[in-house]
């Protein structure tokens, strides 16, 4: 073997990297040509039937810029006489452009002494940002360990998916909070409402909560429940 042949062979690209390059190019082509990759968004069609997978997509010809804009969080919602607070949500049910994007927001206003009662989001984790006032916030893990912290303006706290959590206004001024979720429909279940604002029989509530009859009746009356 002469010197030129030896040098040429030493500079040849090995076969395995070439095959790998071909595979990567093919994979890239398949991704770019797939229906999922070709669809930029799936604006919720509120007029269509909603299934277990969520809303169907609007036809592209009916999509408008307002589908991607929501102004409902520019004011506080209606305050509750019980909790002295309000939660104003921007979930997919109000904001069609969120459909399929895996994100949403909410505005929380707490007046003096206000509280966001114990609740959970079955479909999402949450990041909370305090922009006014100070609060005590916390959550309870599945093994009943409590994590609480006093948060001030600019502080954020994360609440893992599905865990019970709460916020209490601990300052001398109203508090304003903003929540971000990694789901377009995180869901919301308030513990006190689940127990006392429906027709769950009082006898069952007494058994599962160990509360006495008078206290259950008082709470049922407070939250508008029956039974």
UniProtKB/TrEMBL annotation:
Entry-linked PROSITE patterns: GERMIN (PS00725)
Keyword entries, A-Z: Apoplast, Disulfide bond, Glycoprotein, Manganese, Metal-binding, Secreted, Signal
Disulfide bonds: 42-57
GO cellular component: apoplast
Cupin type-1 domain boundaries: 71-217
Residues the record lists as binding oxalate: 121, 126
Gene Ontology molecular functions: manganese ion binding
Protein name: Germin-like protein
Keyword Transcription in record: no
Binding site for Mn(2+): 119, 121, 126, 165
Signal peptide (residue range): 1-38
């Amino acid at each position: 073997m002469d010197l030129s042949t030896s040098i040429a062979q030493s500079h040849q690209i090995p076969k395995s990297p070439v095959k790998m390059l071909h595979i990567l190019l093919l994979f890239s082509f398949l991704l770019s040509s797939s229906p999922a990759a070709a669809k930029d968004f799936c604006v919720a069609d509120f007029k269509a039937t909603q299934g277990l997978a969520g809303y169907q997509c609007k036809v592209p010809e009916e999509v408008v810029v307002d589908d991607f804009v929501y102004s409902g969080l520019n004011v506080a919602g209606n305050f509750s006489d019980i909790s002295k607070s309000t939660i104003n949500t921007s979930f997919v049910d109000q904001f069609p452009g969120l459909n399929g994007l895996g994100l949403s927001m909410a505005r929380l206003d707490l007046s003096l002494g206000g509280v966001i009662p114990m609740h959970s989001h079955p479909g999402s984790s949450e990041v909370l940002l305090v922009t006014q006032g100070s609060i005590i916030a916390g959550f309870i893990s599945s093994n009943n360990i409590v994590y609480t912290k006093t948060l001030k303006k600019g502080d954020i706290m994360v609440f893992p998916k599905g865990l019970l959590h709460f916020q209490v206004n601990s300052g001398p001024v109203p508090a304003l909070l903003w929540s971000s979720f990694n789901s377009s429909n995180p869901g919301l279940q308030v513990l006190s409402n689940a127990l006392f604002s429906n027709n769950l029989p009082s006898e069952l509530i007494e058994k599962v909560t160990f509360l006495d009859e008078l206290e259950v009746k008082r709470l049922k009356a407070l939250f508008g429940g029956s039974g």
